[in-house]
């Protein structure tokens, strides 16, 4: 089941203090970015965040699950209402992720 655009917008709004949050439709679902780094996916109106060591230390009890069949596990963020905690978690996660590769000029 595809994610509802309202949910995607809600997540982007919840994370507005984490940095420059953008999202892009991908294969019927959404990739979500902070400062150009893709840090997660929104699938079936659920937020999945890439697993990093810093994220695991910050929230060791977070559930993991694949966002779609055949995908590697991500953190499944069930509590998307706690803006402060969510913002801090995303900032910690994104600090550990590599910078996006420059796009090749056409």
Verbal overview:
The protein has 106 residues and is α+β, with helices and mostly antiparallel strands. The protein has a single domain, classed as 2-Layer Sandwich (Yope Regulator, Chain: A), CATH 3.30.1460.30. Helix content is 28%, strand content 27%. The protein is built from three helices and six strands, in the order αββββαββα. It has helices at 5-14, 53-58, 83-96, and strands at residues 21-26, 29-34, 37-43, 46-49, 64-65, 74-77. The longest helix is centred in the last third of the chain and has 14 residues, at 83-96. The mean pLDDT is 93.
Features:
Yope Regulator, Chain: A; 27% strand; 106 residues; 6 strands; alpha+beta; 3 helices
Helix and strand arrangement:
Blueprint: H1 5-14, E1 21-26, E2 29-34, E3 37-43, E4 46-49, H2 53-58, E5 64-65, E6 74-77, H3 83-96
Antiparallel strand pairs: 1-2, 2-3, 3-4, 4-6, 5-6
Quickly count the domains: 1
Q: What is the CA-CA span between the terminal residues? A: 35 Å
CATH class: Alpha Beta
State the low-pLDDT regions, or none. Answer: none
N-to-C SSE string, H for helix and E for strand: HEEEEHEEH
**Which homologous superfamily in CATH is the superfamily?**
YgaC/TfoX-N like chaperone
Instruction: Round the mean pLDDT to the nearest integer and report it.
Output: 93
- So, CATH architecture? 2-Layer Sandwich
Number of strands: 6
> Overall 3D geometry?
globular
CATH topology: Yope Regulator, Chain: A
Q: Which class do the helix and strand fractions yield?
A: alpha+beta
What characterizes the major β-sheet? Answer: 6 strands, antiparallel
State which percent range the strand residues make up.
Answer: 25-35%
């Amino acid at each position: 089941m595809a994610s509802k655009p309202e949910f995607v917008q809600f997540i982007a709004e919840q994370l507005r203090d984490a940095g420059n949050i953008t999202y892009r439709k991908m294969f019927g679902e959404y990739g979500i970015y902070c400062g150009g780094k893709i840090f997660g996916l929104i699938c079936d109106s659920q937020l999945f965040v890439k697993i990093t060591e810093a994220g695991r230390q910050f929230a060791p009890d977070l559930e993991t699950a694949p966002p779609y069949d055949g995908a590697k596990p991500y953190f499944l963020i069930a509590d998307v209402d706690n803006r402060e905690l969510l913002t801090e978690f995303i900032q910690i996660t994104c600090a550990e992720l590599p910078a996006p590769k420059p796009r090749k000029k056409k």
